[in-house]
Amino acid sequence: MTPFSLTGKTALVTGANTGIGQAIAVSLSNAGAHVIAAGRRSCAETVEAMGAAEETVLDFADPMAARDVFERPIDILVNNAGIIRRNDAVDFTESDWDDVMDVNLKALFFTCQAFGRAAIGRGATGKIVNIASLLSFQGGIRVPSYTASKHGVAGLTKLLANEWAGKGINVNAIAPGYIETNNTEALRNDPDRNSAILERIPAGRWGQPSDIGETAVFLSSQAANYIHGAVLNVDGGWLAR
Ligand code: NAP
What we know:
about 240 residues; alpha/beta; globular
């Protein structure tokens, strides 16, 4: 068995119905994991792409929604669910602040907490992979709650790694660059934005959701046993410029 095999492991992926979450679920499944695809709506398409897998409803309209899901043993948690709202800082509304912070940061923390409590309670090891962003490092523009939430994801990843590394729980994050999903369709459809983005990416292409999926396999596997608190850029070189 290679050190990247996930055979015998159970993984839960949030926001697994589409985009990056769907690709992560499929990659983990291809690496041998039994995957629980979690979504606020049906993940049937993802489950079909995986074969032996299951789905569960997790809607972070309630940020504490995952409080009971780790009563059964789950080895790998991928916190992928996320939203974005765009507006000028001077016009940004409280609901656009709260909605984004609730899904991207509060739900992510309390889902990690539920996973960590259960694993520590069982004396089990585990792997958490949080999905951060380039806006965990850069400011962006017109996305104040998204930027604040993703900076928060990077910080929480390090805090949880510090608390749990000694208990055999690896907490890391992936910071995706510009990936082809629903989230970025408007950018790709705008010829000026599209060429400005491509011009700055050393790899010369948009990322595919599977680029993130394969990195999630690595961070979920025993090959990553000594990696704690890392936020790994998977961005075609964007942040290197
Ligand atoms: P996406 O296609 O919009 O997927 C977002 C996922 O989050 C969907 O499954 C969505 O479910 C789910 N979600 C949203 N609100 C939820 C809630 N209240 N409860 C449960 N699930 C909820 O976008 P994506 O690009 O794949 O994004 C996935 C993650 O990657 C996000 O954390 C995003 O910030 C991050 N990211 C993406 C990029 C990029 O270039 N695409 C770059 C950096 C970071 P619904 O389908 O039901 O809305």
